[in-house]
Structure to design on (526 residues):
């Protein structure tokens, strides 16, 4: 069952990557980046459970907190670009 | 199952790498690098290497992407289209170097070979003797801090030198701290973002010391904690304005603290020499394992100070200059 | 079966069920990301399923976890993700709107010029 969850999460990752590479606007790409970030958090948590190493949850916690910074940075850049243009 | 997942993740890495090489929009490259970092972390988790995955998470998730984007603000977003002819000399040299490296790796033991010297002599020593010699449960921290302390000192000095390089290259106009009556800099007016940041930043400030001091028992340590603290301060600057950050932690204070971090690390070595032992030999600080743990705490603190301040300095330098 | 065995069985069933719901939601979100026509619809799909997927998977893992500390840590990760995920989606949609991306509406209504119209 855990294996099925891992497979589903990995499939989500791969599909979002396609959108990240192909997305017509930069916002589609940021959306895909966000999705990949959250799914990586879940993937790491599930992998930690599957291998009986529960230290990995600290990694998931750090990712959950720091994921916001990247998204906010890209947003500020894009809004700033519009204001500068 | 794990093999399929590993192959899948590595294929995703390849695809991302190829996409990065061919994209001309540097903002997209920055985001793809973020994706690369996420997937690398998952690969490290599969390799059963939590400390490395932790470091990759701390540095790649927030700080690396933000610094790249801050640099793109200075350089412009699109890569210039080069001439159609690639440099033949450059290509030949690169191929020769690559082939020479590959030829060199043919002599190395196979990946994961249990009969390799590092697996038969070095690794069992660390695994068997850490508990009695160093006394911390996390063997990786013991190796980083005690058995291979010189390497970690080199790491810290390299991080500090990177900050020096950026300060020299981007030197010049600094952002003044806010005085009364100044118009506030451009900052986010969004209520949602400011509210969430007001929740997240204190929580991250709690997370950093936890990671720092728990590094002896679980994945963590000085470097990761420094990156987390740097990330928290960068989030503060992103949401509330770079001028507020400059007012809160002026750059001259950060420079001093970063230098103090390297000084703490080297100073521990000097203290052990003055006490009659070798450089960074923690036996000078006390009997094992207590002396080892005192030494570990001191150097982890040094690494933390340097890394945190360097991250903030780099962001301040990039962001302030872009507003000129 | 004794009470403890029934409890364990219920716990395992609940955990795996939540895990299945979360993974399915994530997968549906990714498919929506690929197949929906324009940005705002994709943002809708991604944002909702992101949060729901995180909720399902992390709650399922917390129910399945062997001790209380792990469960509590997973709950903390869940709370953080619950706050961060909608915020990123909101910031993204707002930035897109301010940069000029407009939703594709029916032919009758004029496109909005102020957020929230």
């Amino acid at each position: 069952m855990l294996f099925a969850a891992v497979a589903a999460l990995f499939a989500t990752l791969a599909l979002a990557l396609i959108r990240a590479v192909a997305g017509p606007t930069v916002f589609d790409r940021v959306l895909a980046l966000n999705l990949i970030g959250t799914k990586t958090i879940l993937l790491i948590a599930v992998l930690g459970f599957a291998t009986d190493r529960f230290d990995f949850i600290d990694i998931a916690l750090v990712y959950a907190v720091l994921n916001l910074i990247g998204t906010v940075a890209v947003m500020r850049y894009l809004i700033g670009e519009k204001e500068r243009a | 199952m794990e093999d399929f997942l590993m192959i899948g993740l590595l294929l995703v890495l390849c695809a991302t790498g190829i996409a990065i090489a061919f994209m001309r929009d540097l903002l997209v490259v920055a985001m793809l690098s973020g994706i690369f970092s996420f997937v690398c972390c998952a690969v490290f988790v599969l390799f059963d290497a939590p400390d490395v995955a932790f470091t990759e998470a701390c540095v790649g998730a927030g700080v690396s992407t933000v610094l790249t984007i801050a640099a793109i603000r200075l350089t412009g977003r699109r890569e210039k289209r080069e001439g159609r002819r690639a440099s033949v000399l450059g290509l030949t040299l690169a191929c020769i170097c690559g082939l020479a490296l590959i030829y060199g790796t043919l002599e190395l033991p196979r990946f994961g070979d249990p009969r390799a010297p590092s697996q038969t002599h070095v690794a069992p020593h660390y695994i068997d003797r850490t508990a009695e010699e160093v006394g911390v449960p996390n063997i990786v921290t013991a190796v980083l801090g005690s058995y291979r302390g010189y390497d970690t000192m080199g790491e810290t000095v390299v991080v500090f030198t990177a900050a020096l390089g950026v300060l020299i290259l981007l030197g010049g106009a600094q952002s003044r701290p806010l005085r009364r009556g100044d118009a506030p800099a451009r900052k986010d007016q969004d209520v949602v973002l400011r509210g969430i940041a007001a929740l997240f930043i204190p929580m991250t400030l709690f997370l950093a010391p936890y990671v720092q001091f728990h590094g002896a028992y679980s994945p963590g340590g000085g470097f990761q904690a420094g990156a987390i603290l740097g990330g928290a301060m960068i989030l503060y600057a992103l949401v509330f304005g770079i001028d507020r950050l400059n007012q809160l932690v002026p750059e001259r204070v950060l420079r001093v603290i970063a230098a103090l971090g390297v000084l703490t690390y080297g100073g521990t070595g000097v203290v052990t020499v003055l006490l009659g032992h070798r450089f960074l030999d923690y036996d000078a600080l006390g009997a094992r394992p207590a002396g080892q743990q005192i030494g570990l705490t001191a150097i982890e603190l040094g690494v933390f100070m340097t890394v945190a301040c360097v991250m903030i300095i780099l962001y301040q330098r990039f962001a302030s200059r872009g507003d000129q | 079966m004794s009470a403890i065995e029934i409890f364990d069985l219920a716990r395992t069933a609940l955990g795996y069920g939540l895990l299945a719901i979360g993974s399915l939601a994530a997968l549906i979100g990714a498919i929506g990301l690929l197949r929906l026509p324009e940005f705002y619809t994709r943002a809708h799909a991604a944002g909702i399923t992101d949060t729901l997927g995180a909720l399902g998977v992390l709650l399922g893992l917390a129910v399945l976890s062997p001790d209380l500390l792990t469960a509590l840590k997973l709950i903390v990760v869940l709370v953080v993700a619950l706050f961060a995920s909608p915020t990123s989606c909101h910031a993204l949609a707002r930035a897109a709107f301010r940069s000029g991306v407009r939703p594709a509406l029916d032919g009758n209504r004029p496109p909005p010029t102020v957020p929230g119209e």
Remarks:
- DSSP finds twelve helices and no strands in chain B.
